Amino acid sequence: MPTIVELAVPHLVPAVPGWAVRGWADVSRAALVEVLGHDDFADPPAASLAAYANQKHTRKAVLLALSGPAGAGGTVPAAADDPGDAAAGDPADVLGYARLDLPLDDNRHLAWIEIAVRAAVRRQGVATALWAAAEERVRRAGRDVVTAWTVHGSERPADGDVVRAPTGAGEVRRRDPAASFALARGFALEQVERHSTLALPVAGDRLAAWRSGAQAQAGPDYRIVQWVDRTPDRWVTASAELQRRMSVDVPLAGLDVHEEVWDEARVRDADVARARAGSRYVLSAVEHLATGSLVAFTQIDLPQDRPTVALQDNTLVHGDHRGRRLGLLVKAANLELLARVQPEVRRLHTWNAAENRHMLAINELMGFRTAGTEGSWQLRLT
Ligand SMILES: CC(C)(COP(=O)(O)OP(=O)(O)OC[C@H]1O[C@@H](n2cnc3c(N)ncnc32)[C@H](O)[C@@H]1OP(=O)(O)O)[C@@H](O)C(=O)NCCC(=O)NCCS
């Protein structure tokens, strides 16, 4: 049986990742490469450590399954210069991890979990031991709904033995290790997301044609507003409102997710946290001139350790302003901005609910190709 320890939260950042964080990042990267065949989503140890150190809006906990002896008090240091790090271990000692996110500003009934185990030690109960420790932690925090995402490749299940999403859109192979593990723990599949990838660059004249066509349909009441890395003072309040709406104005299937609480400080914190984790971003929004409010936005994150990779973050068109081509307008404008800010990007990845026909239609028009699926699972603790 492995020893389960908790990664201590580093007090000072930036900090140099210690062996435990490097082991956690290794396991995560290997699991992604195994399923997807690439490491476009694998964060380097320094980014994982910086994100972990930021506990302001989300209480984060990383539990590690170790082959060696546990650190004092059941915790291991995260930073290389924390006391005790050098004596304690080696990245290879980390057999697997469970990462928990507990929202603090809202959704205080929820815990989000991710578990991965090194391929060489599968089916030996490592994930079961991590889950037992994580479940105990979740119960202690008073949370009673646990959600998880599982990552899958793009091939269709050949044996037809699938779990279908209750939304009617999308399925996951039942014998997939992650699906099997989630089902064995009592999780229900609530939703399937389609992961799609767009090869970049897109020719400038195509982007310009999409943008001008969409702008012509939207009409003169709407104007594109753009920024990079830091929300301009003028738009901080409007951004908070868009983030609040984003949390519930997207297809959520049966996921018990409640509206998020966003204020100006949280918008500023999100900008700072992204920069500390080594990421830039480009954002395009639409201003409704009659009201001066922002009614649509789309954001692309740019992890700076992978300059050819871009990750689509949130996209939203306010419910009162849909059906006017604002979705295509912001997306085309943001790709133009991306091409100026970081022209070396070659792949843009995005995720959409499989039942989200409107968003998928825009992405298909722009040339995104299906690259995989993700399952969204939920468990109610009783
Ligand atoms: C899913 C994963 C975490 C399971 O880790 P593990 O340590 O091998 O799991 P355990 O040994 O504790 O298995 C517990 C139970 O899960 C189920 N299970 C796990 N892997 C399975 C597989 N390949 N096929 C069928 N059932 C499986 C079984 O019910 C198993 O119990 P059993 O061995 O008594 O039959 C591991 O396969 C993994 O890291 N996969 C890649 C990462 C990933 O997809 N993570 C999920 C994202 S949230």
TrEMBL record:
Annotated ranges, domain N-acetyltransferase: 31-203
InterPro entries attached to this UniProt entry: Acyl_CoA_acyltransferase, GNAT_dom
Signal peptide: none
CDD domains noted in UniProt: NAT_SF
One Pfam family of this chain: Acetyltransf_1
SUPFAM superfamilies given in the database record: Acyl-CoA N-acyltransferases (Nat)
Name the UniProt record assigns to this protein: GNAT family N-acetyltransferase
